């Protein structure tokens, strides 16, 4: 499950799943429901900050749940179900009418890594935790929307190769250096504090959420196409 707390113009979304915040159907449903409700409550100046409890931001899809099925084919069906279920969550983040910040408190692996970079800004702790896409090591293909988001969020071909084809584990300071993360901080507390400071700076802009969302979507046309998102014409007061 996840929880949502309002602090002024800031919305703090916290993942409260299992010890690794693995993305199982329950947590994915909770995320989508929370984002859907949040979208309807957006006002000028709203900002979302996402973090998690424990040493993991998220360890990706719940492969243990998938493997608990009574056959290999059923296990693959469960995995595909999670892949399909997370897709509208990705679409919800890209179309959310407010700036979004991920305060990565620990390891973010596979779909957990994706969850982080669905956000506009990513802050990460430097003392522990890595970003990691292990699909090449696990023998799992990359979902189409994972690949589309990665291509548009990570512009360096070398970095993209190392992340997806090399399965490298990237710590906070290195993630900043190669342009995946905006800043790294020496503890989970300082990471969240920095996210709140950034959120407050963005909130003071009082941007119109609907316009912000459409501009965001225009930056990632390939991802929006794969996710089934279209740009909406908006005429503001002049």
From TrEMBL:
<dbReference type="InterPro" id="IPR029045">
    <property type="entry name" value="ClpP/crotonase-like_dom_sf"/>
</dbReference>
<dbReference type="InterPro" id="IPR001753">
    <property type="entry name" value="Enoyl-CoA_hydra/iso"/>
</dbReference>
<dbReference type="GO" id="GO:0004165">
    <property type="term" value="F:delta(3)-delta(2)-enoyl-CoA isomerase activity"/>
</dbReference>
<dbReference type="GO" id="GO:0006635">
    <property type="term" value="P:fatty acid beta-oxidation"/>
</dbReference>
<protein>
    <recommendedName>
        <fullName>Delta(3)-Delta(2)-enoyl-CoA isomerase</fullName>
        <ecNumber>5.3.3.8</ecNumber>
    </recommendedName>
</protein>
<comment type="pathway">
    <text>Lipid metabolism; fatty acid beta-oxidation.</text>
</comment>
<comment type="similarity">
    <text>Belongs to the enoyl-CoA hydratase/isomerase family.</text>
</comment>
<dbReference type="Pfam" id="PF00378">
    <property type="entry name" value="ECH_1"/>
</dbReference>
<dbReference type="GO" id="GO:0005777">
    <property type="term" value="C:peroxisome"/>
</dbReference>
<keyword id="KW-0443">Lipid metabolism</keyword>
């Amino acid at each position: 499950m996840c929880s949502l707390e309002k602090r002024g113009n800031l919305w703090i979304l916290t993942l409260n799943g299992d010890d690794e915040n693995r993305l199982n159907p329950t947590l994915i449903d909770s995320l989508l429901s929370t984002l859907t409700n949040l979208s309807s409550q957006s006002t000028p100046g709203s900002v979302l900050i996402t973090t998690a409890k424990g040493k993991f931001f998220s360890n990706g899809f719940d492969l243990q749940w998938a493997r608990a099925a009574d056959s290999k084919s059923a296990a693959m069906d469960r995995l595909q179900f999670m892949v399909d279920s997370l897709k509208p969550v990705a679409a919800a983040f890209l179309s959310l009418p407010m700036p979004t910040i991920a305060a990565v408190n620990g390891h973010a692996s596979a779909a957990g890594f994706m969850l982080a970079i669905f956000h506009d800004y990513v802050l990460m702790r430097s003392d522990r935790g890595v970003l990691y896409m292990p699909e090449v090591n696990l023998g799992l293909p990359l979902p189409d929307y994972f690949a589309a988001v990665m291509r548009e969020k990570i512009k360096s071909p070398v970095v993209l190769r190392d992340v997806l084809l090399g399965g490298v584990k990237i710590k906070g300071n290195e993630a900043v250096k190669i342009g995946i993360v905006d800043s790294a901080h020496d503890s989970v507390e300082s990471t969240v504090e920095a996210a709140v400071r950034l959120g407050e700076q963005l909130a003071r802009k009082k941007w119109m959420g609907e316009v912000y969302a459409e501009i965001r979507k225009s930056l990632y046309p390939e991802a929006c196409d794969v996710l089934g998102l279209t740009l909406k014409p908006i005429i503001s007061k002049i």
